[in-house]
Amino acid sequence: MKRITALFLLCSLLLCFFIPVSKASPAAAIPTEVLSAALANAQEESAQDTEIRLVPDAAINREKRLALDDNLILPAPTRKDAAMSPESSLTVEAILSRSAKAGQYYCTAVYRGDAPSGTPLNAHYGAFTGEPGLYEYLHYYHFDSDLAVGTYTIVYFTAVLDGNTLKPIEGSAFASNLYVSLYPASVQKLTIENWETGETLDKLQLEAGKAVLLAVGRTPTPSYAVRLNYATCTGPYSVEECNGLLILHSNGYGWGTLKIETSTYISVTIELNTCVDPNGHHEAEPVVIREPSATIDGLTIHTCTQCGAYMRETIPHYNSYYYKFVDVPEDAWYYSSVCSAVGKNLFRGVSTHHFRPEEKMTRAMLVTVLWRYEGSPDISGTPFTDVRASDWYAQPVAWAAQSGVVNGVGGGKFDPNGEVTREQMAAILYRYALKTGLDTSGRGDMSIFADGQDVSPWATDAVSWTVSCGIIGGAKEGGQLLLHAASGATRAEVAAILVRFIDRVADPLPEPGVVDPTGAEASGSTGNIDWAFFPDGTLVVNKTPWIGTYELEIYKFPWEQYIPRIRTVKVVYGAKYLHQYSFRNYPALESVELPESLTTIDNYVFSGCTSLRHVQLPDSLQSIGYEAFYNCTSLEEIDLPDHLVTLRGYAFAGCTALQEIDLPDSLTEFYIANQGLDYNVFLGCTALKKARLPVALERIPSGLFKGCTSLTEVEMPVMTDIISSGAFYGCESLESITLPPYLQKLSSKVFNSCPNLKQVVVPCWSLDFNRDGDPNLEGDNVPFGDPATVTVYGYRGSPVQELAEEFGYAFSYLPE
């Protein structure tokens, strides 16, 4: 007799629906004794048919069982190694109905023990109702305190009503065993003592294959309507919830994070760490993928030299909540300077939400700020006896000394904790400007300051120069302008001075460009938009108008009559945004010149420009909108900038001349802030032969290269977790591909309609397969393309091998 061992998650919070819910209704007219008699009959029938009585879950063939009868009962989905509580609801029944025949009923009963005997603890029955079609209905038993740790048996069968008697349908009765335990095996129990702040647990190391139970904000009673705990997990982990208990499973090696939120949005984030090496991770040099800016998060990748696992570290942009310093109010004179200094990576807070603007700046702090601005060069050794190699400022001081930016205070000492005076800071900036070849010839009028004569002789030139550049100014006190050259400078003052030094001297912003109409055939100004059209077909603009979708048919561009003749578009410096539809369907447009100030190309900007051949995208560009270059059929190449963080859907779809694409590493998964790599970006790029994906891309979006019939070479990202349905659908020239080693989820129809695909290498130890592919794509829901032609390469005994064998692929072993 075959038996099934099933461990169900006893949590009413997890309601799993895989197909639409049926209209199941109780059969109240049938007496309980009639059900009991039917149960006894079902037990006798199932005992005679051992093949059906206890069926392993994996062996249940729904189509075969449905062929026996139109209505069928199957066990509810099981959860392995899940924590349980006696005060819970229990999911014990899943009902499948194809045509909902009248007069048929579903019946289940729960017995204590490993066989159905005696009086059931609980029983349930109801009529199959509903329209024709396949439905699923989950039933929940409420045991409350009656459910104890131990073994139970669930009996399932379909019955018909004959007069006043329920008769089981032959072949429909079977049973399964349920083993209930309070906690899963090999579980550590950890408690976050202060749930409101999460201060007691911020890091957690797990052994691969183990589970950890976190007791956090436990729900006192089952609740269907409100989930008091929300948990999301990134990395080689999965998380389950059970009445306020979070069960964390490590199903691989690597780093990750667990983020938990309550219904009041109080959250805690736990860093997770799992490694194949018994000594834990040994990190290689972190790789900075993207630096943070005012609006864009930074991204750094950490890699383990022992097991090759990786971890993504997101550095919040400086306008994010992370940098909302509670001691820097928005109405403070230094607010914008502090924000800018943090955004330029010059300053950091002394804690997460504290900047301490009035704290005096030390010499060590100042040289560290300049060292960061210089790119944090790796320099060791220092001539100063009061600076140790282990000090946090050792490298900045060594750099400043070797480059001549700072001098000591005498006696071979640097005095790192000494307060920086305003004249000392002026001298340091002056020496830095000399070192980097900046213009230091300017001198300011020191007589405007009542205390200008008090500047130390060694600092006179430096202070005068900073005054001439507008870097250091004075403060009015008692009707006089005072410089306070010998006074200590606060962190807020230094932030303001350094931002002015960078913006006005070290890296000054150019003045906004102007549209020169000299020689133009036509020109004009509309609001704040200036333009000029020249006889050679060049249109010069300083910005473009915003046009709502509802205005598109009635809006007339100022240069409307010249659109058929426009061959070149030049946008002058200062423009940051090309609004949607700006140059859509310009038939003669061949080239575009864009300024370094540009950050956004909005939706449809160059859509339908079939003659467009050359576009030089500026390094400042951060976002390319929906269908921005759609059907630019003459565009053969495009160089995407390194700081691009948003590439919206269909951006280059239909660019049938595009031959190669290198997606910058700054692109990651598309998420709620409309940043990342979106779906169908290169749909129908039939000439595209080679593509490189970003190294830190979490998800390859659906339809990314759909219909790229010439694609033969794809450089896959190492860190991809998910490949979505149809990502490579219709890539007819693709013959071989190697999937990412840390891939966790693969959707169906990824490689459908790839007739020449012969080899798919899947170097993954764990892989979940989403069997529900895009319904708009033709073909079967298969994982690796056509089973008749594709050979799958994977590890022996892995889920990849099981998946390949299930779908009939030829399978070859990878060396371990």
TrEMBL record:
Residues 1-24 form the signal peptide. Gene3D superfamilies: Ribonuclease Inhibitor. Pfam families: LRR_5, SLH. Keywords: Repeat, Signal. It comes from the Bacteria. InterPro entries: LRR_5, LRR_dom_sf, SLH_dom, Surface_bspA-like. The keyword Signal applies. Residues 321-379, 380-443, 446-512 form the SLH domain. This is Leucine-rich repeat protein. It comes from Faecousia intestinalis.
